[in-house]
Amino acid sequence: MRYLGMTFKYIFKNFIFIFFFALIPSFFFAMSTDIHNIGAVADNIVTGEFDLSFVQLFNFFSLFSLKRWPFALAAFVLTLLFMAMLLSMMEKHMRVGSRSFRDLFKRIDYNLGSTFFILLLALIAYEFWALVTAGLCSLVVLIVTNGLARCILGIALACGMMVLLCYLVSLFLLWLPCRQITGYSFMDSLSYSSQISTGKRGNIFLAVLIPYLSCSLLQGIVVTVSAFADMRPVVFLCIEIIYIFVFLYYNVLMYVLFFDANGEERLDLKKKY
Fold first, then answer.
1. Dist CA 79 CA 17 (whole Å)
2. Burial of 100 (0-12, 13-18, 19+ CB in 10 A)
3. What is the 3-state secondary structure (H, E, C) of 91-120?
4. What is the pTM of this model?
5. Residues of the chain scoring pLDDT < 50
6. What are the TM regions of this chain, as residue ranges (predicted)?
């Protein structure tokens, strides 16, 4: 819970400086979301049926909706650009204690390559996870005949896979900041990130898990409630706000974790007199 609090503190204290970086990528992620499919899945679960096809389940878990993949592709490209800029600004702020948009592009060329490589690996790994999760849930639909039992088992399986995803994310979360701040090679950065996270894995896991499950649940509730009324603009706004939070939270968390795990002093925390 310590890292959770430290991350929230940085976001709230610097929100007006970092909000812009999340706004545009989050808009396209919200546009890429298949609200109708999420609503259909949520309604199916609420009624206790869990009678869903593989395509419905994969669209539910995947970042790339089959119907809205151009928006998802644009969201990935924009996430890459704005994430590289945000990390560049945060690094200077935490190391030097000052933040400035004037120096934003000085390290972006360096950050862009490492961000693209790790972000692409993360995307491929996530889509593989979505494929496996959808496949396992489809097996539940095929094997279990009782509607209520199928629903309970399907939800439990999906939640278990989400916990597994968060655990895997927590293992590699420090890889990117280690690469960008230390300048080590990708493999050396991965090894170093594993070393400095020793003894902190439990706290890192919770810092990844709690917001992820909370945001997933909140998104499901928003879409489910919208099924009872025509609230598409409100739903879209709520989903974009969730994505803005997710973008800011996990990017800030990476750097908060690195400075704490590496024992580096954060000059952004020093009071200026």
1. 17
2. exposed
3. HHHHHHCCCCCCCCCCCHHHHHHHHHHHHH
4. 0.90
5. 273
6. 12-31, 69-89, 110-132, 152-176, 204-228, 234-258
